[in-house]
Amino acid sequence: MKIKINRHLFEETSHSPAVIDIVGENMVGEVIDFCFIANPYYPTEDMMREMVAKIPSIIKSYPSSNPRLAQLSLAKVLHVNPDHLIIGNGATELITLIQHELIDDIAIPVPTFSEYLEKLKQTDNAKLYELSKDENYQLRLSDFASWIDGHQITSALIINPGNPTGQFIPATDMLSFLKRMTHLKMILVDESFLDFSGIENASLMSYLEDFPNLMIVRSMSKHCGVPGLRLGYCCSSNPNFLVRIRQLLPVWNINTIAELFLTMLEKTDREYRISVKKIVQDMSLLYLNLVKIPGFKVYPTGSNFIMLKVTCGLTAQEIQIKLLEDYGLYVRDCSNKVGLDQYHIRLASQGSEKDMILINALEELAKEKLD
Hints:
- The protein is an alpha/beta fold.
- It is built from 13 helices and 13 strands.
- Strand 9 (296-298) and strand 10 (305-310) form a beta hairpin.
């Protein structure tokens, strides 16, 4: 059965429309969302049951007016100073404040997560560093540093692993960049996908006090699989950064369900780490199967998603629509990302069983076009 979709929604936002909006409430269960970059194994079923059981009482209560209580819960699993943390209503709330209030201009490698460009597109604050397609859109930090200094830019953004490229940058390379660029006002590092790299001690959080110009931001939607809770955080040792952002955040900027979830992190940390290991295994299998399919160029990845270039004669939009209407599979068309052409898609692992459904569909579509 062909699925009817609301195509016009793809033109109305730089982000991916929600599946329920595209196909309607009655058909949402018929679609597998590979556009959704998040942990499919966490929260656990036990955590879900506990939250559901407590909803009737907690939605009748105000969230805490003391943000430090939530910071303490999160700091226990991150192993950081809670005073260095700020929790936001999604990472996008914090990204917006950081960009508007703490930077004068910022070097942004493209392609990138569109929110980093969206709020700055009407100003000259965003200085775009276009990654080379001949180098598979890989960010070379030494070249990036030279370009920043050559253009006298005062702040820099690095997403690690990159979105949508999936490029993972080792901590040693990141530290070399930080040491070279201590003169910058801010180095904003987005580590939203870092846990999926499969590399231990990849985060820069333990180096915050060594680099006062370092600001780390993470979306909990991604690594914890809870986009609906709107949770994200930033972390820095710079008191000026922290004071300014805290002054701008409203009281009760996170809700009671989100607060409850934060209190559950420490006791379920083992389950979380098991979920990450499962995703790393799924990604390895997904990558190995994708590279076997003629008609697609598969970029290397260090995250829970993969970017592909469509080389079978279809555009990314055509692939996206065919997968949705004919197979009930939703992937990200990256055509609207600055720095990419109309032939790139991004897909995130949704577990090995669902991943195989997508692999078979891509094989069929490519075979039809190439035969």
